[in-house]
What we know:
- The complex is a heterodimer of chains A (113) and B (114).
- Chain A has strands spanning 9-13, 18-23, 31-38, 45-50, 55-56, 61-64, 70-75, 84-92, 107-112.
- Chain A is mainly β.
- In chain A, a hairpin with a 5-residue loop joins β6 and β7.
- Chain B has no helices and eleven strands.
- In chain B, strands 2, 4, 5, 6, 9, 10 and 11 form a seven-stranded mixed β-sheet that branches. In chain B, strands 1-3-8-7 form a four-stranded antiparallel β-sheet, with no helix packed on it.
- Chain A binds chain B through residues 2, 34, 36, 41-46, 49, 87, 93-106, and chain B through 4, 31, 33, 35, 41-45, 48, 50, 56, 58, 88, 90, 92, 94, 96-108, 110.
Amino acid sequence: DAKTTQPTSMDCAEGRAANLPCNHSTISGNEYVYWYRQIHSQGPQYIIHGLKNNETNEMASLIITEDRKSSTLILPHATLRDTAVYYCIVRVGGNFGNEKLTFGTGTRLTIIP
Amino acid sequence: DAGVTQSPTHLIKTRGQQVTLRCSPKSGHDTVSWYQQALGQGPQFIFQYYEEEERQRGNFPDRFSGHQFPNYSSELNVNALLLGDSALYLCASSLLAGPTDTQYFGPGTRLTVL
Lengths: 113, 114
């Protein structure tokens, strides 16, 4: 079973920041938070991951609360191409043996023109 | 740098038949994982191959089997197809013991069982 809880759907205006929340209250000390997204009928695309510090890359920022029980993925300037299903996954990561990804149902983000 | 590739893109089979799906990992990767995604659901883990051996397996029957070749490419075989096997089959590659073991996905193979 997925260890995360996400809203089923969200809308965001084009050009605004999209903030996608994720709850993972049972996360273990060696589990990372991963985010993937899936545009209709394509393979999931890796976005970002983190352990406890906030992370930023060219696609997004990941904010993890101090107690690590929740996180927020931020797309700073959403475009229509960001419309997709976003999956938040907790997983033993780093150099710990390549554990499987357990997907939930994700958040369907729709960017509104 | 080629990413993960899968073939074929689409496939139509009938119940009881057998199917083989293929995956080539991203350059430099040595581990291949397979996932099944039914319509409207998130991907479900089938199994993972490393050094030509299955090292993890999800809750799938023995009808689902796989293979990894010395060049790290992989095949997924499904025997005695059922209507419920209709899904998008995804392959993901990664590096088992590198600085990061992030899995990168291919575009998938859409299997339809009639």
